[in-house]
Specification:
Elements: E1 2-7, H1 25-38, H2 44-57, E2 61-65, H3 74-85, E3 93-96, H4 107-114, H5 116-119, E4 130-134, E5 137-141, H6 159-173, E6 179-182, H7 201-210, E7 215-218, E8 225-230, E9 235-240, E10 255-264, E11 267-278, E12 283-291
Parallel strand pairs: 1-2, 2-3, 5-6, 6-7, 7-9
Antiparallel strand pairs: 1-10, 4-5, 8-9, 10-11, 11-12
The structure holds fe (ii) ion (2 copies).
Length: about 290
């Protein structure tokens, strides 16, 4: 059995002080939004509890589906890198960025450089999609992170990435290994309003209809989600994790998935354990188990 933790939307608190010259435009709005709305929601105590929990249960692998920072300040990016380092060796993490990691034009460049050890493919190449082959599982990481105007948090994968993804999935299909696709924005219809949605989800859905995966993991919505996409023969399950740092005052309390992947005789079974943060006990505990 191979155990994979799926965590998302850390928005690593607290937001560091912003150099005055960077406090313009969308970053100024971001600061206001953080202090008036989100500072009380995303708490360091929750992330500390998650780190301790993951260090204790030691999953074989950890998938992190974006929105690591709040405004992609270099100090936030550096802090996130420290947090990832404490989870264990780089080989055990597959990371993709979210819209908050591309908060203003150009900001994602520094994040991709600083976090490259968790986003490089197995040949050491950077860029998306990447492939991480870990244990019995193939993990494909996409980026839907694009800089957007204030008030807009949509995502876009783009045609070049979609074409590479289809080529990659076609190649992998010969090996019959279980495959997980990571994307920050929810790929199913109706998950979010247009200004918050994955703009080219129809194109991704078309790729997956021709070249399916076993499971899609996403974040962005800040509450646990289960959905389905159409595959060529069967449906493809989709799971969204809530924010990993939320105390639960505004949206879902912090939550993550622990997947148990078992392969036997060419068949794959994935069991999903849902863990939620318990604000009274101050720990993450198992709340529900399901088989996909
Ligand atoms: Fe988020
Ligand atoms: Fe997001």
């Amino acid at each position: 059995m191979f155990r994979i933790a799926h965590i998302s939307d850390l928005h690593i608190p607290p937001l560091p002080p912003v150099p005055l010259k960077q406090l313009v435009g969308k970053r100024l709005i971001g600061q206001f939004s953080w202090f008036h709305k989100w500072k009380s929601e995303h708490r360091q105590v929750v992330l500390d509890a998650l780190l301790a929990h993951l260090q204790e249960i030691k999953p074989d692998h950890i998938c992190i589906t974006g929105d690591i920072t709040f405004t992609t300040l270099p100090a936030e990016v550096d802090k996130a890198a420290d947090w990832f380092s404490r989870l264990g060796e780089a080989q055990r993490i597959s990371l993709i960025p979210g819209n908050h990691d591309a908060y203003v034009a150009g900001a994602l460049d520094y994040a991709e450089q600083k976090w490259s050890r968790w986003m490089r493919d197995d040949e050491g190449q950077t860029g998306f999609p990447y492939l991480h082959r870990r244990g019995p599982v193939d993990i494909i990481g996409l980026s839907s992170a694009v800089a957007t105007p204030p008030g807009i948090s949509l995502g876009r994968i783009g045609q070049p990435q979609l074409e590479k993804t289809e080529t990659l999935l076609n190649r992998l299909s010969a090996d019959s290994r279980p495959s997980l696709l990571l994307v920050h924005h929810a790929p199913q219809d109706g998950a979010a309003k247009p200004r918050r949605a994955l703009a080219d989800r129809k194109e991704l859905q078309a790729v997956l209809k021709r070249t399916p995966v076993d499971l899609v993991l996403h974040g962005h919505l800040h509450y646990p989600v289960q959905a389905e996409l159409e595959g060529p023969d069967d449906t493809i399950p989709v799971l969204g994790a809530a924010s990993a740092s939320a105390i639960g005052g505004r949206k879902s309390v912090a939550h993550y998935h622990l997947l148990e992947v078992e392969t036997q005789g060419g068949q794959t079974q994935i069991t999903v354990q849902h863990y939620h943060f318990d604000p009274i006990a101050g720990i993450f505990s198992l709340t529900r188990t399901q088989t996909l």
